[in-house]
Amino acid sequence: MIDGTSPNESPAFDPRADESVAEIRRLVAANPELEANLCHFPIDEQVIKEGAPNHALFVLLDGMLALFKHMPGNGNIEVSRHGRGELIGVHSFATDNRSFCTAQAVEPTHALKLGSALMESLPTAYPDLHRLVQRLIVANLAGRYRSAVRLQVQLSEANRELTETRNRLIHQEKLATLGQLAAGVAHEVNNPVAAIQRHTETLRETLPALLEIAAPGKASAFWQAGLASSGALAGQRDAMESLSTAYPDQSRALIRRVAAVPADLQKCILGTPGSVVTTLDGAALLAIFESAFLLRHLGASAQQISHLVTKLKEYARPASAARETVDIRESIESTFVVLNPLINRHELHAELALELNVSARATSLTQIWTNLIKNACEAMDDQGVLHVRAFRSGDYAVVEISDNGPGIPEELQKKIFDVNFTTKTGAENFGLGLGLSITRSLVKENDGTLELTDTLGGGCTFRVKFPSL
């Protein structure tokens, strides 16, 4: 392809080419000595052969010639086509070098052959023809220069796309490897966590009966109180002060432990103020309460780990080329779980609509949310505010991810999606300039759009739109 045309089209170098060719035809018809230089080339005849000497310049009067370049292993590759008003053999004729390409007729073609002797005599013997040929030479050279420039632009764009694709493939390969590792870790963690959950349930069922032997008639109340305790009783500091006053002989450490017990059970541990305390009974009851409390939180922790493992498996599942129906809310919430340590540094406001489904590759969406949320969190100082909204707008599912960071200067907003462009330069906040470029490609692959806008009050908003189901 030359000058943005297909191989079957000839670039128009000069709108006056037809006029010049018509004048050349009249001059040739009026001069029999010139008419002898007219050549006819039937289809498939070679006018110039690659690697062979060429001692003539050919002015095409009609028809079409194709230029072929021999490529080892690929045969002859067609590189361009040339027709009426164009010149063939300019470079090899002017430099006396061997022909760079093969010129072959793809249509019945007529041309005026200008050998060295005739070209030297043109200025004096045929000044009008010399003027027309010079005009065509300049027009052809100008046209070929334009073609070279446009081809360079196309090559630059193709190289940019190849670089972006290569970086994306490398990034995706790393993500795939990381996903496999994460899935393996999740699998290994899942088994012991499941065992902890089973054993916790077993202890919750069997221990009360055993503890009743140690503290008949009281164990059950303390056990149930421990299971119900959150560990953060309202007014616990006041309770400690009150207990310290009532039981001045008790240690501060014991008072702190007893203050976590419901008020109606505290006397069972410490006894009536001023009376003799049965230390063994009180210690047993306090131990029952604390054991139940620890068992409750052990089960809750195991359940939280199990939930994280489930989300991690969903997040790290192998990428699929096939699209599926994806729930936007579930996709974003899975990303929240994985990025929880980063998000926890900020204040999160999430408004996620129910039943907001799109047709997409699930792994692509989680990668999109990961990149955008991570960027937003890293753009803010600690205690920033992160807004994530997902809603329906007409026929589209829209996700907006906003931060209240410093924002992106207007002069940089057009560059942030470019490959290798990054504003992260610090040792703890280093970037390769691939995240947003890859994110835009992933959004586009799923028929979506990605836009950047400023946020009122500072920061910026990334808006992703997908056709909704």
Q: How is this structure best described in words?
A:
It is a single chain. The chain has 469 residues and is of the alpha+beta class. The protein is 52% helix and 20% strand. It contains 15 helices and 17 strands. The chain has helices spanning 17-30, 32-35, 90-95, 116-125, 127-214, 219-228, 236-246, 252-259, 263-270, 279-315, 328-338, 340-343, 362-379, 410-413, 435-445; strands spanning 38-41, 46-48, 56-62, 64-71, 75-83, 87-88, 102-105, 109-115, 324-327, 347-352, 357-360, 385-393, 396-403, 425-426, 429-430, 449-454, 460-467. It has a 5-stranded mixed β-sheet. Strands 1-8-3-6 form a 4-stranded antiparallel β-sheet. A hairpin with a 2-residue loop joins strand 14 and strand 15 (429-430). Helix 5 (127-214) runs antiparallel to helix 10, helix 7 crosses helix 8 (252-259) and helix 10 crosses helix 11. The longest helix is centred in the middle third of the chain and has 88 residues, at 127-214. The protein is rod-shaped and about 140 Å long.
